[in-house]
Amino acid sequence: AIRTFWFVPGTTEEYGFAAFFRGETELVRYRFEATGKTRAACVDDVLQQVTQWRIQSARTGQRSN
After folding, report:
1. Beta pairing partners, 5
2. Engineered SS bond to 35: which of 9, 11, 52, 65, CB 3.0-4.6 Å?
């Protein structure tokens, strides 16, 4: 991630976490975020999102070759 931050979603009983990743070019950024009851749950959710994004990106890249 090129940047991460914690935030407070609409309720104070949950945590929010966001991570930014560089895209195909210097100008493209992707933001992944999650809210949850614990910080660990938020990080796990974002990591799952990023994993899915990387898998999809790899498949898309293979098809264009």
Report:
1. 18
2. 9
Q: Dihedral through CA 43, CA 48, CA 51, CA 55, nearest 10? A: -160
Q: Tokens 């931050």, residue?
A: 5
The conformation of residue 61, written as its DSSP 8-state character, comes to H
C-alpha separations of 8 from 19, 23, 25 in Å: 15, 26, 30
Instruction: Report how far residue 25's alpha carbon sits from residue 7's, in angstroms, rounded to the nearest whole number.
Output: 27
**Separation CA 39–CA 17 (nearest Å):** 8
